[in-house]
Every structure is written in C-alpha cells, then in structure tokens.
Amino acid sequence: MREGAKGQDSALVRTLLGQKQVHPPIWLMRQAGRHLPEYRELRAKNKSFLDFCYAPAAAAEATLQPVRRYPVDAAIIFSDILVVPHALGRDVRFAEGEGPLLTPLEGAEDIAKLDLSRLETRLAPVYEALERVRAAMEPERALIGFAGAPWTLATYMIQGRGGERDLARAYAYQHPELVDQLLDVLAVAVGQHLIAQIKAGANALQIFESWAEDIPGHLFARLVTGPIKKAVDIVRTAHPDVPIIGFPRGAGHRVGQFHQETGVNGLGLDIAADLGAARAAVGPTICLQGNLDPMALMAGGAALDQALDAILAAAQTGPHIFNLGHGVVPATPIPHVEHVMKRVKGLA
Ligand code: CP3
User: Fold this and answer.
1) Which residues bear the site annotation Transition state stabilizer (predicted)?
2) Most distant CA pair in the chain: distance in Å?
3) Reduced to 3 states, what is the DSSP secondary structure of residue 86?
C-alpha cells in the first residue's frame, strides 16, 4: 500500500470520483493563513515566506492548524504556487504588503535555462511536509496537493508580479513560439511536482488557474486547457486513480469546455460562477466545488445564511464539495467559519 492510501477512502475523494454525499464535504481555500491567530504567531517566527514554505515542520504545522480548529474534510498542503518557478531557477521574492515579485522572464535564453532536473530535489521540503501531515492526520480526512496551472505560472514569470496580466498576454501575441515552449516546460514541471506530492501522501490534487480570466476564446485551448491537459496526462499515466480538481478562476462561463478539454475530475468555481449553469454544462455526475463569496463569509449574519442556502440547495443536484469562490481573507471572524462548518454538516 503506498503512503497515500491513508485518506483515499475519504468523503472528499469519493465525492470527486462521482459519489454525491448527503452533506457535501468541506474545505476552504486559504484555510491555513492569516485569519488564524496561531498562523500569525507561526508566521512571525518565519520571516521569509518562501523559507517558511520550505521548512517541513513549520509548513506541516500551518497545514494542520485549521484541521485542529475546524471539522474540515481535507487539508491543503501549506505551500505556494510560486515554488515551481523558484525550483526551475527563477528569482522569486515575497515583499511585505506587496505579494510576490519575480524577475521578469524575457527571451529564449531565459526559457532555455529553466532547469527541470533540479525540481524535485529543490522541492523535497514540500514533500517532507506532506509526509508529516499525512502521518499526523486521521484517515477520514483527505490531503490535497496542488500546483499553479502553466498559464498562471507563466503570467507571474513574464509579468513579474501579481495583479497585472497585460504584459503576459501581450507576450503571448508577440512571441507565440516562446510562450508555447514556456508552457510546455511548465506543464512537465507541474506534472512532476504533482506526482511527487502523490508519492508523499496527497490523496487529491488541485490545479489553480487563477488567471483564466480575460483569455479570449480563440486562445483558451492554447494557453489554458491544452497545457493543463498535458500536466493532467502526465499525472494520470503514473497515478490514474488520484482525482484532480481544476480551478479556472474567472472562466466559470467556460467550465463545460474546461472540463471537456482537460479531463479533470472536479471543477472549482469562482465567486461569480453560476452553480446551476455549471451543473447544466457538466451534467449530473461530475463533481463541482465552491463557491461561497469570501466577503459573505467575512460579513456573516443573514447575508451569509442566504448565500449558504443557495449553495447547499445547488449541492443537491450532483456531487459537490463545499468551498469558497476564492481564498479566506485575513479579516474573517473565526465564529463565521465555525457557523459555515455546522450548517454544511447539517448541525445548524
Ligand atoms: O490554505 C491554503 O490554501 C494553502 C496554501 C496556499 C497559499 N497560496 C499560501 C499563501 C495556496 C493553495 C496558495 C496558492 C496561490 N498562491 C495562488 C492560487 C490561488 C489564488 O489566490 O488565486 C496564487 C495566485 C498564489 C500567489 C500568491 N502567494 C499571492 C498572490 C500571495 C500574496 C497574497 C496574500 O494573500 O498575501 C501569496 C502569499 C501567500 N500564499 C500567503 C499564504 C498564506 C500569505 C503570505 C503571508 O502569510 O504573509
């Protein structure tokens, strides 16, 4: 039995494989993070965010903090999507209050220098953190490994920072061969990183395409779904049984196309996506995930209950994993998260 067998029979995995549950399993994007006082304390002891991600004991502890506090059905490994460009040899920094900063990738020489051979060695601490979490956590809870999708990683690498995406899209028009080459390398890197996470104990995977938004229809297959499909195929060749969630943030209206072209098991829906339309697009057996607005969670009260009612009703139309449409924000009160857990589990 490989290590990942623990967690394999969890409600989360069964739902991803197409079994609707009476109460949808729940986890929250960014469930580990600044809304928890114990995270802020741990973070203060680990000044550099990347070093924190590469410290197995600290990363495992951050992963487990929300698991101790909330009855979540899954933990997501505490790491970041930008460890992949970093492991390929790009310069990645996290500046206080500014988010990630990268030295922008320019020509063919920069792409040629991306070094796939060092990826798994450089990311060994991430895999060790996964092993520690899987060993410490009950088998009923799944462990989720993740990676950024090739286009989202390429966007950060070309643009050099978060938020803006115009230079990356311009680059795709100006240098089509280079962008295809870059996406190819990234698809292999993502595939390898996900396989290594399975070997370390991940029971399910999520691919974050945080910047699927603003991609014209004629480029969607080339930039978004094609490279994701390549990574998915690499993983499936080695581990056909481990379910994969795709999260095409900003492209909820293309979720049917995204599902068809990538072959993922589950579809993460962003805040704006319509659950009914998504269900109609993918049919009754494919797993959907989402999509409570993190601001409704932060606000609480009647507005939160209304939003929950709508999602819980939609979750009866097929396999569904309860989640947010984007990450928990730091100002979120813990009692609001506890309330959501109770309602989703049918206890309030
Ligand atoms: O709990 C979890 O969800 C697991 C850990 C996780 C982090 N980042 C930790 C983190 C995951 C899954 C990510 C994914 C990630 N990282 C994405 C995809 C999801 C999305 O938001 O669309 C992206 C785009 C990134 C890149 C990134 N990392 C940004 C833009 C930032 C700054 C924003 C911010 O919240 O500060 C980060 C830093 C980061 N990654 C933090 C955490 C907890 C905050 C750093 C800190 O504690 O100082």
Assistant:
1) 80
2) 58
3) helix
| Predicted confidence (pLDDT) at residue 4 exceeds the cutoff of 80 | no
What letter does residue 113 receive in the DSSP assignment? Answer: T
Strand partners, 26: 322
- Compute the distance between CA of residue 200 and CA of residue 192 in angstroms, rounded to an integer: 12
pLDDT in tens, 232-277: 999 999 999 999 999 999 999 999 999 999 999 999 999 999 999 9
> What are the CA-CA distances from residue 268 to residues 125, 134, 274 (Å)?
27, 23, 12
Cα distance between residue 132 and residue 129, in whole Å: 5
Q: Which residue intervals of the chain are DSSP H helices? A: 11-16, 37-45, 49-53, 56-69, 83-87, 108-112, 119-122, 124-136, 150-159, 166-174, 176-199, 217-219, 226-238, 255-262, 275-282, 294-299, 301-314, 334-344
Tokens found for residue 226:
């094609």
Catalytic residues: 30, 34, 43, 80, 156
d(CA 23, CA 341): 11
Mind listing the domains of the chain with CATH numbers?
11-344 (3.20.20.210)
Q: Cα(319)–Cα(328) distance, rounded to whole angstroms?
A: 23
* 206 CA distance to ligand 1 middle (Å): 14
Q: Which residues contact 21 (CB under 8 A, 6 or more apart)?
A: 11, 14, 15, 319
Nearest CA to ligand 1 atom 5: 78
Backbone angles phi, psi at 142, to 5 degrees: -85, 155
Q: Which atom of ligand 1 is nearest to the CA of 82?
A: 26
Can you give the pLDDT at residue 343?
A: 98
Using CA atoms, how far apart are residues 201 and 207, in angstroms rounded to an integer?
A: 17
pLDDT at 54 over 70: yes
φ, ψ for residue 333, nearest 5 deg = -70, 135
- Residues flanking ligand 1, CB < 6 Å: 29-34, 43, 49, 76, 78-82, 94, 99-100, 146, 162, 208, 210, 249, 327
Summarised one tens digit per residue, pLDDT across range 29-50 is: 999 999 999 999 999 999 899 9
